[in-house]
Amino acid sequence: MSINLNKGQQISLSKSDGTALTSVRMGLGWKAAPRKGFLAKLTGGGDIDLDASAVLIAGGQPTDVVFFQHLVSDDGSVRHTGDNLTGGAGAGGDDESILVDLARVPAHVDQIVFTVNSFTGQTFAEVQNAFCRLVDETTGAELARYTLTGGGSHTAQIMAKVHRTGGGWQMKAIGEPATGRTFQDLLPAIAPHL
């Protein structure tokens, strides 16, 4: 059963039987908002190139990143499935996904922060039906969903993070608007959430 998360809410990444999840997928989906007016008829629909990234953090410092130009973390525990340049139909499917093998994440990595940015610079006012969701990759069951709401003039968002707690992992919905076209631009916005 999936949980709809609110900004700041956390969930444990344990199965209902108390065992830890071993592999999760952070999915990102979106679609371009319909354009209005005379120019929309001339220029057609419009594609939005959102990019999902995962920044691996150890002791408050970035140690690796997975994004469309670096699809697999250096240790192989985090993998991006590929770049989507246009977004989808907004029907709930993932347009970009990042797979995390929690059991293989090196012990020194204590957080993985997921971001989304508009590589082409469109704002979230031009995006609709945007969401991120966490899926148990073993069973395909959706565990949590966070709707990237609000539109606005920002070009990026710090979506969520998974972080170690005791012997397991938790997910926290962050939902912090930011400005930037790449994950590097977002590092100052990530820092307060570590």
TrEMBL record:
Pfam families on file: TerD
Residue span, TerD domain: 1-180
InterPro entries referenced in this protein's UniProt entry, alphabetically: Stress/Tellurium_Resist, TerD
Domain of life the protein comes from: Bacteria
PANTHER family hit by this protein: CAMP-BINDING PROTEIN 1-RELATED (PTHR32097)
Protein name, UniProt field: TerD family protein
